[in-house]
Request: fold
Amino acid sequence: MAGINHSLYEGDFYAWAMENADLLRQKKFEEIDVENIAEEIESMGKSNKRALLSHLAVLMVHLLKWKFQPVRRSKSWNLTIKHQRLQVQKLLEESPSLKYQIEIKLKEAYEEARIIAAGETGIDEEDFPKACPFTLEQCLDKAFLPE
Reply:
C-alpha cells in the first residue's frame, strides 16, 4: 500500500492527505506513507516559521517608516502595524516554540526590513541603523510606536 500512497502523493496530494489521515485514525500504521508524512509535517513547521519571520519583517518595515518618515505617517501604516502584530501573536500562540526562533532570527528579519523600507521610502538603506533599533518586546507591544 505504501507504493500506492506514494504515487497518490505525487498525483493527487489532497486524496493522499485524506487517505493517510484516515489510515492514522484507524491506527493502520503499517499502511501509512511514513516518509512523505514526515516530510510534510516538517514542511508545515518550516512554513510557519517563514510566515512568522515574514510578518515580523513587514512589521519592522512599517516601524522604520513610522520612525524615519514622520510627515508621511498615516492611518494605513498604523493599521498595518496592528495587523502584523496580530499575525505574529497568532502564530506564536499556535506554536509557542517559535518564540525562541523569532528571537534568533530577529536580526535576519530586520535586514530584510531595511532593504524593503529603503525601497518603499527612497531613503538610502545605509541611513537606517545597521542593528535593529527595536527590541522584540517593542515590536510586539501594542502601544509602541517609535518616535
The chain has two domains: 1-32, 45-140. DSSP finds six helices and no strands in the chain.
